[in-house]
Write a structure and sequence with these properties.
Layout (H helix, E strand, L loop, with lengths): L2 H5 L17 E10 L12 H15 L11 E4 L5 H9 L5 H4 L6 E4 L5 E5 L5 E8 L3 H16 L6 E2 L3 E2 L11 E8 L1 H5 L2 H11 L2 E4 L12 E6 L7 H29 L1 H17 L5 H16 L9 H9 L2 H8 L5 H19 L1
Antiparallel strand pairs: 1-5, 1-8, 2-3, 3-4, 4-5, 6-7, 8-10, 9-10
Enzyme class: transferase
Pfam family, one: ATP-gua_Ptrans
Catalytic activity: L-arginyl-[protein] + ATP = N(omega)-phospho-L-arginyl-[protein] + ADP + H(+)
Length: 354
Amino acid sequence: MTLEHFMNDAISPWMREEGPSSDIVMSSRIRLARNIASIPYPIIAEEEKLAEVRKLIEKEYANKSFNSYHNFEFIPIRELTAIENRVLVEKHLISPNLAKHTNESAVIISENEQVSIMVNEEDHLRIQLYFPGLQLRHALDRAFEIDDWLEEKVNYAFDENKGYLTTCPTNVGTGMRASVMMHLPALALTGQINRMMPAINQLGLVVRGIYGEGSEALGNIFQISNQITLGKSEQDIVGDLESVVNQLIDHERNARDLIMRESPTALEDRIFRSYGVLAYSRIIESKEASNCISNVRLGIDLGIIKDTSRNILNELMVLIQPGFLQHYAKKTLTSRERDVLRASLIRERLQLEN
């Protein structure tokens, strides 16, 4: 297996599977922050110490398998081109923060792209695991198993009173961030999402865009995650998040029903206009494409557009990103060139679906 394995397909293998409430919850993620007890944290560590971490993880885990996760590929960040780096971010296999590191940072990724372990990001290790749909508790159980597997060779920095010790104080305790990626077009269309965000924040959760902190909610895709890591168990944190997510699912479904009852023709017009833009445009910017893809996905979920896979949203939302477009073209593109290629790839993908 090589880097090319992760670069060529816009959609990760696990994303092709259905999960609970997949019409609204695109994915569930558990991320664990861990540090090695005997080595200074990345923010203050010298290069030779960070090199020790990188070499340890490469030696013990490269090309290994664990349970159903096979052939972990070890990828040093410094060996990536700028475009390859960006594609891995767009596929959520590495964080934007890790992409900025070049010396002793790396990532180790399972063959099915469900597990990635970032090395020398903000912490020595950032373990993340994805599942389709709303599967937070299942993802947590699998993340614990991977965490235990790593701990067989790594002595974690841990305090009996504080829990896992991390670079950022906001991660101390469980060191866990649980998050879900949700498609909420009806709540966005009715304006309800803007009223809900402050209430969600008051519950110790945070709402972000598709690529996490500082990113925009493109295509009505929102990431909901916990802010509190200290003073609660991992199970309690996941339970609190799951409770809010279930409420958002109910609100989104009610909003969809309301729009279907009160404005069915206007909704169909919006959906089919968006489909037409995607199917026939010769130039399209990423924001317009994201909004049109969101509308088409809503049409698929509501049965207005038939014989088209729901996974088309997952695939196209990566396919239209700047990094993937340039990887496909095998060269750096201007903004205008990306807009032309984006329209062409979307047309081809829809024709293939038909």
